[in-house]
Design a protein that fits this description.
By secondary structure, the protein is α/β, with parallel strands linked by helices. It has twelve helices and 16 strands. Helix 3 crosses helix 10. Belongs to the zinc-containing alcohol dehydrogenase family. Quinone oxidoreductase subfamily.
Length: 344
C-alpha cells in the first residue's frame, strides 16, 4: 500500500521531510478494523511529532491521527462494526497513523461517520471533537443541565479545538467568550456560536469587565499556557476550573489558584489509547453521540480548507500551512490518487 512516511525528523522545507513509500498492507486481528482511508485531517500534533530531532527510523514512520474511511476487514473479536461501514476516528498516537491507504485502528476508538457530512467534512472532526468533548465534559465535568448559563472562556477560539469546543459549549447551554485578534478569526469564532470575542493580544480581564463580567466559571486554554497563566488566575472565579491542552514550560505561581480553590486539569486526547485505559471505549461513545448531534444539526463541521491528493508533496504543504500559525478551523487532505473516484 502507499503511505506518506518519514525516516528523519526534519524541517518541513527539507526535501526528505516526507516521502512517498510503499509498505505491506496490514491485517486485522483482535479488536482491530482495517480501514481504507478516504480523507484525513492534519493537526498541530502532527507537526510536533515531526519536529526536528536526531532520531532516525529504520522503517518509515507514518503520522496522522484523523481519518474517514471504509472498513475492509475486521478482527475476530470485533463487535461494534462490520465490513463496509463508513467510519471516522482519531486513532492511537502509539501506532502507525492515517497518512496511508489502509490503517489498523481499535474499534473502541471509532465512530460511525455522520451520514449528513461529506468525507472531507467528517475527516475534519474526530481529534478536535474528542479533545474538546473530553476537556469540557470529562475533565471540567460540565453538566449540560445543571451548568447552563455559566460562562466559559476559550483561549484561541478559532483553531480546530476551539471551534468545536465553542459549538459544544453552546449546545450545553454555556455563555462562551473566545479570544481572537484578526477580523477573519473574530468572524469565524462568532460563526461557531461565541457570544463575545476578546483580543488575546491585549489584557483579558479589562476586556471582560467592559462586558460587565467579573470573571468566568471555566477556562479552556488552547494556546501557550505560560503566557496566559497569570491572566487565567485573575479571571477564573472562586471554585472554578481551568483546563489546558498545552503543558507548562516554566515554574508558575499557584497563589491565586490556591486562594480561590480552583481546579486545574489537562486534556490529552491520546491518554486513553496510549495507556489502554479500561474506559477507552468512551471515545467510541463520544463519536457516536457527536454523530447524532451532527445529524440533528446541533453541530456543524469546522472544515475550512481541502487539499488533494494524499502524497508527500501535499502533506508537506499542509504542514507548512499549520506551522504558519494562521490556520482557521480544520485542514483536510483527500484521497490517494487511485482512490479519488472511490472516495467521492
Amino acid at each position: 500500500m502507499k503511505v506518506v512516511g518519514l525516516y528523519e525528523y526534519l524541517p518541513i522545507e527539507a526535501q526528505e521531510s516526507f516521502l512517498d513509500v510503499i509498505v505491506d498492507t496490514p491485517k486485522a486481528s483482535g479488536h482491530d478494523l482495517l480501514v481504507r482511508i478516504q480523507a484525513i485531517s492534519v493537526n498541530p500534533v502532527d507537526t510536533k511529532l515531526r519536529a526536528s530531532k536526531v532520531t532516525v527510523e529504520e522503517t518509515p514512520r507514518i503520522l496522522g491521527w484523523d481519518a474517514v474511511g471504509i472498513v475492509t476487514e475486521i478482527g475476530d473479536a470485533v463487535e461494534l462494526f462490520q465490513v463496509g461501514d463508513a467510519v471516522y476516528y482519531a486513532g492511537d498516537v502509539t501506532r502507525p497513523g492515517s497518512y496511508a491507504e489502509f490503517q489498523l485502528v481499535d474499534e473502541h476508538l471509532v465512530g460511525a461517520k455522520p451520514i449528513n457530512l461529506s468525507i472531507e467534512e467528517a475527516a475534519a472532526m474526530p481529534l478536535t471533537l474528542i479533545t474538546a468533548w473530553e476537556a469540557l465534559f470529562d475533565r471540567i465535568r460540565i453538566n449540560p443541565d445543571a451548568d447552563a448559563g455559566k460562562k466559559l472562556l476559550i483561549i484561541n477560539g478559532s483553531g480546530g479545538v476551539g471551534s468545536i469546543a465553542t459549538q459544544l459549549a453552546v449546545w450545553a447551554g454555556l455563555e462562551v467568550i473566545t479570544t481572537a485578534s484578526r477580523d477573519e478569526t473574530i468572524t469565524w469564532s462568532k460563526q461557531q456560536g461565541a457570544t463575545h470575542v476578546i483580543n488575546h493580544r491585549k489584557p483579558l480581564l479589562p476586556q471582560l469587565k467592559a462586558l460587565d463580567l467579573e470573571g468566568v466559571e471555566y477556562i479552556l486554554c488552547l494556546h501557550n499556557t505560560d503566557a496566559y497563566w497569570d491572566a487565567m488566575q485573575e479571571i477564573i472565579l472562586p471554585q472554578g476550573h481551568i483546563c489546558s491542552v498545552v503543558e507548562l514550560q516554566n515554574p508558575v505561581s499557584m497563589s491565586l489558584i490556591k486562594d480561590k480553590s480552583v481546579t486545574v486539569s489537562y486534556e490529552f486526547m491520546f491518554t486513553r489509547s496510549k495507556y489502554n485505559t479500561d474506559d477507552k471505549v468512551r471515545q467510541h461513545d463520544i463519536l457516536t453521540k457527536a454523530t447524532q448531534l451532527f445529524e440533528k444539526g446541533f453541530l456543524k463541521t469546522t472544515l475550512n480548507h481541502v487539499l488533494t491528493p494524499i502524497n508527500a508533496a501535499t502533506i508537506k504543504e499542509a504542514h507548512r500551512m499549520l506551522e504558519s500559525g494562521k490556520s482557521i478551523g480544520k485542514l483536510v487532505v483527500k484521497g490517494f490518487e487511485e482512490n479519488d473516484e472511490q472516495a467521492n
